[in-house]
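Handout, section 4.2: multi-component inputs.
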Amino acid sequence: MLLPGISACLPLLRALIGPTILDRILGGNVIGTKTTVLLLLIGLLYDDLGMFVDISIAYALLNFIATLGATKFFLRRLDIFMDKQEQEESS
Amino acid sequence: MTILSILAAILILLGLFFFFAGTVGILRLPDFYSRLHAAGKCDSLAAMLMICGIAIYNLQPFSFAALLISLKLFLVAAFVFIASPTATHAITEAALVLGVKPWKRTEKKRP
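Output:
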């Protein structure tokens, strides 16, 4: 129980320090997938898996949609990304 | 200790190992594409193994309700197995279009 929790917290570091925006999206995606599994483990601990399965399905769907949405947004808005990268390269 | 619980323990431990391998890869690898490679493994394979392990463990005192919950769990595993590579592919395509440069051996390691 503790070990998956630690391994779910560590990608947050990548989401915080990630050099590009896409690194942050990637970190968020990985955290979401790990949370899906963590919810099932919490369900095992509480001996009520039937309820937690539904929550974890909803979380998996939400995570998938959020990642696709963020990716498509940054594909459309190329200018934001380019400005960010130029700033990082010049600094 | 039955065969099913041993199988479930093996699956969950394997999933845990791949989770940690993916996490180390995400934190330590030098550039974006190699990080995506590690994250893809940890997303699809590890989550699939752990969910299948939990589903098998849940079948232990066999009943119709437990079977239904396990079926739902396998459905989550199938969804993760389809959705996670799709998300990884979408991120890779965005990185390629936006022009994230791959890492070369001569460069210094990026943060």
